[in-house]
Amino acid sequence: xxxxxxxxYSRLMxxxxxxxxxxxxxxxxHTEKLIELEKRLPSGTGIDCGTKIDTRDLKAxxxxxxxxxxxxxxxxxxxxxxxxVITVRPSFGGLDLTISGKNKNDIKEYLLDTYYYALTKEIx
Length: 124
Known about the structure:
Order of helices and strands: EHHEEEEHE
Shape: elongated
Number of domains: 1
Helix content: 25-40%
Number of strands: 6
Largest sheet: 4 strands, antiparallel
Radius of gyration: 16 Å
Strand order of the largest sheet: 2-3-4-5
Strand content: 35-45%
Number of helices: 3
C-alpha cells in the first residue's frame, strides 16, 4: 500500500522523467493523476483556497505543498491570511514535515497535524 505522500512523490518524479524524455502522453497522464491527488489534500476550515502541490521546486527525497490560511479572531470575524509552504520529507518514522510562514494564532501545530494525517492516508 502507498500513502498519499508516496504517490505524490512518485508522480512528481514520473513527470520529471517524462519531461526529460519528451513523453507527452505519459506526462499528461501523470499530471492528471497529480491533480486528482491534490483534491485529496486539505481544503476548507481555514484552508479556503485549497492546497497546491509545488511542481517547480522538486528536490531528491522531498516535495512542497503551498497553502494560505484564513484566520478568524476571537469574535468569529475573519482576521487576515497567512501563507505557508510545507516541505515533506520521508523519515524512518513516516514523514518529516516542516512549515514556513507566520505562526499567527499558533496555526502551525494545527496545520502540521492536519497535513500529516492527510499525507499518511493509504491509497488503495
